[in-house]
Design brief:
The complex is a heterodimer of chains A (353) and B (236).
Chain A lengths: L1 H7 L2 H27 L4 H32 L6 H21 L2 H4 L1 H28 L8 H22 L4 E2 L9 E4 L2 E4 H23 L1 H11 L1 H6 L4 H27 L1 E2 L5 H14 L4 H23 L11 H15 L8 H4 L3
Antiparallel strand pairs in A: 1-4, 2-3
Helix pairs in contact in A: 2-13, 3-8, 3-11, 3-12, 3-13, 4-6, 4-7, 4-11, 4-12, 6-11, 8-9, 8-11, 9-11, 12-13, 12-14, 13-14
Chain B lengths: L3 E10 L2 E11 L4 E6 L5 H9 L6 E6 L2 E2 L5 H7 L1 E4 L11 H8 L6 H14 L1 H5 L10 H13 L5 E5 L7 H16 L3 E5 L3 H7 L2 E6 L2 E7 H6 L1 H7 L3
Parallel strand pairs in B: 3-8, 3-9, 6-7, 7-8
Antiparallel strand pairs in B: 1-2, 1-4, 4-5, 9-10
Helix pairs in contact in B: 3-6
The chains are: A mainly alpha (353), B alpha/beta (236).
């Protein structure tokens, strides 16, 4: 009996389970301690969750860019974080101009839409140029080559932004109408967070409908599955690939504006961390899987928001919020170890990934 | 003028000289078959016509237009569509979506709808499974889907690559009955098939390929009765 057990599972498996079980115990112990002490009221927990949803929906929008491109080219576009930066950093200057002229005070919705349009167009252009210049010539190269190029492109873009827009941290002007809170069904929500959540939901539903229902979306799925067969049906594969990058870029641009509403600050290197977190979210949900990226983003956002106060606080760690990025990346490691296909993904193994 | 014409076509896979000067014609309304052993260049010929492979030499003409100047996806709108070897259906798309992809280059919504009805009449099994993910279909149903998907382009000529491959005999008969039926309605078909007996049964004419060259051409009847063909491809 014991022998059969050992034949089926080797030492590594058992060690991994023990690590997993130990982590589970720590998480449960920390959470139980925090709740027993009762340091936070239920209102505070609710705020943590809402903030988690808001930042998670930003991660989800960026994650969609990774997942769409991976779905088609089986390539991780590691410069996607910089696609995100391009839009929001460029729109910053427009935001300042609109604020100084007093336009955004009077027409805040219109001015937000203008910023959104600027960010979307810039991010989209960066994504499309990236594909055209950095990735397309390497379409048939070994898989490692475009990955290295992507990292190079990422640095290139970071320093281009720094050169063009300056190296300092810049702060987006406040929108007066969005300071304060709204009350929905008796729940008090920061206005910015409400806008971020609603806008993300609209974008995600829109994307889902685009991919599932429109002819271009179906062509995208067909190309993801079999490029040669798609070409034999008359689908212009190159154009579908460009569309995919453009779509991912547009979502990253929109995510940038939402990010600026939550965190206010922009700089040339700001895309790196959200980029990697969105990548984590995409892996978490199952890379290549559109609903997976959405789910993974929201999940990561909430874990990151709740984790420090729920678990780390209870463990007696002094400054738990400093560790929220560590929690995000610990999640990445755990997912890769315990469920490399992600929450919704079973495809990774069956494809030539 | 022939509907489809290949003139001294040479194609390569890297440095491998796969087609060594293929010349053939397909007239409007004909079923023409290419027979030959594995690796003779049958599929390569279809790939070259479809633009997946660029010939290094020679011309492919459809109604006089030089197809080698077009990319693979443009050739479909010129009126040539291929039902590829191994079906190559989009397994994660639904049956209906697969058919829609066949009509990708078309814009006439009413015509597409009518053609979809036609495909469903031709293959009622596909109608039953309309919203099912195509990967769940059986091999025979997948071949029906691949054929239907090709028809959705409303092609001038349908290229079929090994439609009988891996199918049970009953289903092979069904697919070949469909080929006959389509041809009777006026469809021009270029058929690549390992099962030479079946192919010559539905075809008007045929070409025999050996290592990238055409070694024999003639009417289906002539080929069936040719002693060499009999011995090599029809099992004596």
């Amino acid at each position: 009996m014991l022998q059969r057990f050992f034949r089926k599972y080797d030492t590594t498996d058992i060690v991994m389970w023990l690590i997993g079980a130990a982590l589970a115990v720590i998480v449960i112990y920390g959470a139980a301690r925090t709740l027993a002490v009762g340091k936070y009221s239920s209102d505070v927990w609710r705020d943590f969750i809402i903030f988690g949803l808001a930042q998670g929906s930003v991660y989800a929008l960026i994650a969609l860019g990774y997942t769409l491109v991976y779905g088609i080219l089986f390539m991780i576009n590691f410069a996607h974080g910089e696609v995100f930066t391009g839009g929001v950093f460029t729109a910053y200057f427009v935001a300042v101009a609109l604020a100084n002229s007093g336009f955004s005070d009077e027409h805040w919705i219109l001015s937000l839409l203008i910023l959104l349009a600027v960010a979307v167009v810039v991010s989209m252009s960066v994504a499309v140029l990236l594909e055209r210049i950095a990735y397309r010539p390497l379409r048939n190269a070994p898989r490692l080559v475009p990955l290295i190029t992507a990292i190079g492109a990422s640095f290139f873009l970071q320093y281009t932004y720094r050169g063009l827009y300056g190296s300092g941290v810049k702060t987006y002007p406040d929108i007066k109408q969005l300071s304060g809170t709204w009350v929905f069904f008796g729940i008090r929500i920061l206005r910015t967070q409400a806008v971020v959540i609603v806008a993300s939901v609209v974008l995600m539903v829109g994307l889902y409908i685009y991919v599932q229902r429109t002819k271009a979306g179906k062509a995208m799925r067909a190309v993801a599955e079999d490029k040669e067969a798609a070409a034999l049906m008359g689908i212009d594969v190159d154009r579908v690939i460009v569309n995919t990058f453009a779509l991912g870029g547009a979502l990253a641009g929109a995510a940038g504006i939402l990010y600026a509403m939550l965190f206010k600050q922009v700089n040339a290197f700001m895309g790196f961390i959200p980029g990697i977190k969105a990548f984590t979210a995409a892996v978490l949900g199952g890379i290549g899987n559109v609903p997976g990226a959405m789910l993974g983003g929201l999940f990561l956002g909430i874990v990151e928001s709740l984790g420090p106060s729920l678990v780390l606080d209870g463990l007696g760690i002094r400054s738990p919020y400093q560790l929220k990025d560590a929690i995000a990346f610990l999640m990445l490691v755990l997912v890769l170890i315990f469920r490399p296909t992600g929450i919704l993904g079973e495809r990774l193994s069956e494809k030539k990934a | 003028m022939a509907l489809l014409e290949l003139e001294n076509v040479h194609s390569y896979y890297g440095n491998i000289h796969a087609l060594k000067g293929i010349s053939l014609t397909v007239e409007e309304g004909e079923v023409v078959t290419l027979i030959g052993a594995n690796g003779a260049g049958k599929s390569t010929t279809l790939k070259t016509i479809s633009g997946i492979l660029q010939p290094r030499q020679g011309v492919v003409r459809l109604e006089g237009r030089n197809l080698t100047e077009y990319k693979a996806h443009e050739i479909v709108s010129q009126g040539v569509i291929q039902v590829p070897e191994g079906r190559r259906i989009f397994s994660r798309l639904s049956v209906r979506e697969n058919l829609e992809m066949g009509a990708f280059t078309r814009k006439d919504t009413a015509g597409i709808k009518a053609d979809m009805e036609k495909v469903f009449t031709l293959f009622p099994r596909l109608l039953e499974r309309e919203n099912q993910v195509a990967g769940t279909l059986s091999g025979g149903e997948q071949q029906m889907l691949a054929t239907g998907r090709g028809l959705m382009a409303r092609p001038r000529i349908l290229l079929m690559d090994e439609p009988s491959m891996g199918l049970a005999p009953v289903l092979v008969d069904l697919i070949f009955d469909t080929i006959k039926e389509l041809n009777e309605e006026g469809m021009t078909i270029l058929l690549v098939e390992q099962n030479a007996l079946l192919a010559l049964d539905v075809a008007d004419r045929g070409y025999v390929l050996e290592t990238g060259t055409i070694v024999l051409a003639g009417s289906a009847k002539e080929l069936r009765e040719n002693p060499q063909v009999k011995e090599a491809y029809l099992g004596g």
